[in-house]
Design brief:
Structural class: alpha+beta
Number of helices: 17
Order of helices and strands: HHHHHHEHHEEHHHEEHEEEHHEHEEHH
Radius of gyration: 27 Å
Helix content: 40-55%
Amino acid sequence: RGLGDVYKRQVPGRCVIDGIEALKTMTYQFESFSLDHVSEELLGENKLIQAADKLEAIKRLYHSDPVALANYNFKDTELVNRIQDKTQFIDFLALRSILTGLDMSRPGGSVAAFLNVYLPKLHRKSYVAGIRPENGGLASPGGYVMRSQPGLYKDVLVLDFKSLYPSIIRTFKIDPLGLAEGLKSPDTAIEGFKGAVFSRESHFLPSIIENLWLQRDEAKKQNDAPRSQAIKILMNSFYGVLGSGGCPFYDPRLASSITLRGHEIMQTTAGWIEELGYTVIYGDTDSTFVHVEGNDALGTPPETGLELASIINRKWTELLKSEFDIDCHLEIEFESHFSTFFMPTIRGSSEGSKKRYAGMKGGELVFKGLENVRSDWTVLAKTFQYELYKKVFTGQPVEDYINSTIAAIKSGEMDHALVYKKRLRKPLSSYTKSLPPHVKAARLADEYYKEQGLPLRYQFNTTIAYVITVQGPQTAETATAPLQYDHYIEKQIQPIADSILPLIGLNFETIANDQLSLF
């Protein structure tokens, strides 16, 4: 078959499950979903062949050591089965099938799952669904994200609303049938957003969510992780489905009544916390970050977190009863305590960033949205950031570590950690207007392979491992020029250091110049 062609085969009487799609449906995230990488992450094991050119290694084994090749293939099947044992993705898919009616072998399918659950109930009420919008529909407002207050903090608490969007649907009776019925009798309905009003009596989603919520609580008590995860994903998909142009129930009033209510809840909650004398330094969809250092009015930081959650839950119960005459199903929880917390600025700006932070929690270093979790950064950047932040967070000196890292880069000791990895998202030939470094490296490599009479490797969707040399980007296996070490210091090390060193009164250039003068 040609590269890029896709063939499907039906196997009657069997469910053919794609492990990668199953893990993605379970919301697992990996830098790469290759069997080798996932096995290493989940099991601490690798495939038996680790050569750079696996295809050539397999060909050699085929001719010279067929038993070793058989062992290689057998180990692959073992790894897949052990990944299944670890994640229980078959149990997850079976439970999802029971809950939604979706075939086990079907990945994704949020709209179909929703329709399978909702339509029978709607039909029994003598209603029919609408039609999908021809233009794909208008986008609804996204989740709430507060402008952060950048800095290095001690004692930051994270308070999370438990399943915020499902709890909003349940509390404010947000529902397609409820909207239709509410518009018929708006005087007695619950007000939403963008002109929406929802019936207090006629609706399905709130009770569907209530039932799923109870099932999930029971699954948690029984330590049934696959069932708990299947229910969580189904509940959380309802908002996205109602805001999707691919769903016949699409209506901007439905999705907006969920997200804009979320904005209101988050802003009101932050205001209450501020009134109690604490500083809210960031808020993100359903999480509120509270700086409590030096304020022991409610006890230790963990005691403060629990008490704040109790106060907020009580306030929401009272407010919703008085303003809407509805029961409150919102529940905020004290999720974690960061002993040290870092909220960076947007690069090149004094403004606080969003969805990016790091901190020490229970003695562990946690990263969100920073270079340490980016797949296209080098091992050098990830290692340097982890170690530098850990030293800053624990009050250790950093100058010697920075100097030793620069020295190791310059001497060639870190060459193995200087490889970038970037995926080609389209055929190599289609890059015409701009040529990113990984594309330049891939083109040079394939020109070399062509000259040598070898098969081309980088023409289609694949991951490029490349380095920056004094002659520009080259693939890791075909690089012939010396590495450009200054590039790695300036583009990988310095931005990470500059993001945090000023907060402890240090300057990367001052430290680096002292070290670079030795070379």
